[in-house]
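User: Hey, my collaborator sent me this sequence without any context and asked if I could get a structure. I don't really work with proteins. Can you help?
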Amino acid sequence: MRLLDGRDVEAQVYTFHGLADGKEHIALKFGKPGAAPLVRLHSECLTGDVFGSLRCDCGPQLHEALRLLNNEGGYLLYLRQEGRGIGLYSKLDAYRLQEQGRDTYAADRELGHGTDARDYTAAAQMLRALGLQRIELLSNNPDKSSQLEQHGIQVASRLTGVHANPHNVGYLRAKATQTHHVLATILPNFPVGAS
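Assistant: No problem. I've predicted the 3D structure and written it out in structure-token form, which is a compact way to encode the shape of the chain:
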């Protein structure tokens, strides 16, 4: 694969059958991971990962993870959990509501969804299938580490960078205030009215 900086990197791809959610997730292994390797659980985001949407921080988080994993070794688990688990079409409907002033979570709730529909049981199954019991998790989301720990994976957290821009600062503020993502270091630099 080719990273955004133009470097070609090699990764071994793993597929899984019989996961709890029945979805087709993959894992990519970079380099020679250590005993407690760096791991990124990345939920699929077509708009951010592929089309470069500025509404979220998904694409930059994915590219940051790929760079770090290539440099240090580790695993990327690419999870089929579009729109925090509500699916692509519901996410696009939520975008419309966000344009009318709702934050990302209020929009999801108005559509009849919860705050975050993602379940990381399958991710824990994938990690165990890869022989991993202890990991260094690359994430700002405390729910990921909490759910993995509930499934017997020992987690040391490592924060990702915060990829803020004038188009996603409202989204990031909602993540920090409503689901306790660790993002406070950069958000004060953006005006409160930015969205």
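In plain terms: Residues 12-81+118-163 form a domain with the Rossmann fold fold (CATH 3.40.50.10990). You can pass these tokens on to your collaborator as they are.
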